Amino acid sequence: MNGGDEVVAAPGGPPQPLEWKFSQVFGERTAGEEVQEVDIISAIEFDKTGDHLATGDRGGRVVLFERTDTKDNGGTRRDLERMDYPISRHPEFRYKTEFQSHEPEFDYLKSLEIEEKINKIRWCQTANGALFLLSTNDKTIKFWKVQEKKVKKISEMNVDPSKAVGNGNLASSSNLGSSKTHLANGGCPDRSFSCLSNDISFPPGGIPSLRLPQVTSHETSLVARCRRVYAHAHDYHINSISNNSDGETFISADDLRINLWNLEISNQSFNIVDVKPANMEDLTEVITSAEFHPTHCNTLAYSSSKGSIRLIDLRQSALCDSHAKLFEEQEAPGARSFFTEIIASISDIKFGKDGRYILSRDYMTLKLWDINMDSGPVTTFQVHEYLRPKLCDLYENDSIFDKFECCLSGDGLRVATGSYSNLFRVFGCGTGSTEATTLEASKNPMRRQVPTPSRPSRSLSSSITRVVRRGAENPGVDANGNCFDFTTKLLHLAWHPTENSIACAAANSLYMYYA
């Protein structure tokens, strides 16, 4: 596939499973090293080109990485292919810069501490060689500009360098013992040039040969500057932000409201979705994630804690649920339990590149939805079915409330999400695909392999209405017989927009893989 060894599918058959390989790791921990809470990664995002990657952590920092395998060769991948230029086997990134995006705050009116943790990062359109991105914590969104600034220095002075002293003033051995009287401001009572000529050594040719100093740029440094601060618009914690395809607006969502912002206006936003009831005792569900359609600037989707997704058109009354298209899965008879609603809560949604499909992640499964079909998900992928008998334990230690993210490949043929023990899973969603790979965030990602199930998935273009469930595993232990560690969890990951490359976070370490 792109960026690695090509996988050729048989004519008319499903694509072959990818063979994932380790690429890079940033912030790798040594054995026994204790991880600081502020260093744990809490957000990952590729930009649209895939040439830049941003991470945010619980300490409020944003770290940027840039791709080097194409930049060093001086052209895009397509240009290099046309020139028959050798291309690196896979994307390679290097550290670019970092900056402090948010600081801890305290809301004195509500007696509430506001953490500096970065909840989400979203890249904006580039302009004039500068990078722009949005970052948010629980209450405040910031718009950042990262640009290279040239450091300018004065050069080509005509003064003899041997006559310069540490503070930049000039002196000569002749004036150290001179009896001439100098004024406090550096002047000389003698109006002639004799005073000046004793202190400064002129170049050959005298005064006519003097030239003005020149300013040259010797090096560049990256400077991050906060352009806008969007604050005081959310009473509850912000759980998601999303850019509009128009390049001018974005949305921010908390538990009960979704607000629409203009990037250039920080003191005003418009409430476009409000699920807050008149009486809070009547509250039955909250907003868990929101995302703009990738190409239709008037369309967005948001998910709820009840496991449903609503698609709304901003040209209609978004505040009224009757205008929203509802996507939900019917509950199986007799399957309801105390944990049903908890594990049904959707923690993340992502649109496919063309906007036709929506990927959602709840606690136990990944679900792929076709926006043209509201009867139920097209496909359901079992992420860690072995946890179902352990739901009581997971509820007791609050792990059942962990919020896992999900992502889709650029070609829409595969989806991925994280699990416990620093594992993540990749599923094929193409026609007839049975791909269900389990990988570990380590330098040997394939060491924990789970046998691939034999049942194929349904075609995305199929009109079959039944739901296909895939990826179930042996309960209790992994493929190596190891007990799963619920304290190590892979919550955040991102798929490169054009190549089969995944970046994922395991505590404070950023791992990258390619296929």
UniProtKB/TrEMBL annotation:
It comes from the Eukaryota. Pfam families: WD40. Residues 442-464 are annotated as: Disordered. Keywords: Repeat, WD repeat. Residues 450-464 have a biased composition (Low complexity). The B regulatory subunit may modulate substrate selectivity and catalytic activity, and may also direct the localization of the catalytic enzyme to a particular subcellular compartment. Belongs to the phosphatase 2A regulatory subunit B family. This is Serine/threonine-protein phosphatase 2A 55 kDa regulatory subunit B.
